[in-house]
Amino acid sequence: MSIGNANTTALVDRASGTAAMERLADRLVAMAPPPMDLPQAAIVRQSPAVAAGLAASAAIARRADERARRSRRPILTMVVDSFVAACSFVPYSAVALLLRLVMARVFFLDGQTKVEGLWLPVRLAELTKYYVTGLDFSVVVPTAVRPETFSAFTSQYPLLPVPPAIAAYLVSFAEFVLPVMLVIGLGARFAALGLLVITAMILGFVAPDPLASVQFYWAALLVVLVTQGPGAVSLDHLIRRWKGR
Fold first, then answer.
1. Which tens digits make up the pLDDT trace of 54-69?
2. Angle, helices 188-205/214-228, rounded to nearest 10 degrees
3. What share of the chain has pLDDT > 90, as a percent?
4. How far apart are alpha carbons 147 and 167 in whole angstroms?
5. Within a domain: residue 27?
6. Which residues are paired to 32 by β-bridges?
7. Separation of alpha carbons 27 and 11, rounded Å
8. Could you tell me which residues are beta bridge partners of residue 120?
9. 116, pLDDT greater than 70
10. Distance from C-alpha of 3 to C-alpha of 6, rounded to nearest angstrom
11. In Å, how far from its chain's centre is CA 187?
């Protein structure tokens, strides 16, 4: 009987000891810090010099991988990408200035033939290889419309939806004011829109074949100026910057 009691007591002590060990293990696990990922832990223990070296090595590896990918691209793709990158160096402001000067010259010279008024002689000397010539930039400031202009609108443009006399006045003075606005870049979008309306009238009521007419290409250039603006080389751009301060 005493042996049985002794065995029972031993089993109870063993069970209580096992339970105590399990409780101790649970406490130790709860007190331990959360596990850290190896790369992050390594970075924490690294010195700044080692971290900088690893960053530089990673950058070198990325550049090498990029060169390897580029070397595997087809030659035609590389040529096209190089051409696109070269074209991106041409600023839109230079393109817009060229378009403005071209379109302003076309309409301004045409408008000078329609008006009469104050003549401002502007001549610049040009030294060529053998002699000196003069560049004539004389301008007629319109004060009236020529009689020939009225007769031309009456006989040559009978299909216009505007009376010939009114059309003669509007077009003649518009072809003086709007090109000047286009050159200096003041209200350039509105100036280009006005010239686009004149071009559309020519294409719709004067030109026999709009697609084969040079005015069709004028319209394409003017649409670029209307939609994209005059660029940075313009008074419009300077005014916007001044107002933004």
1. 777 788 878 777 776 6
2. 150
3. 40
4. 13
5. no
6. none
7. 25
8. 139
9. yes
10. 5
11. 20
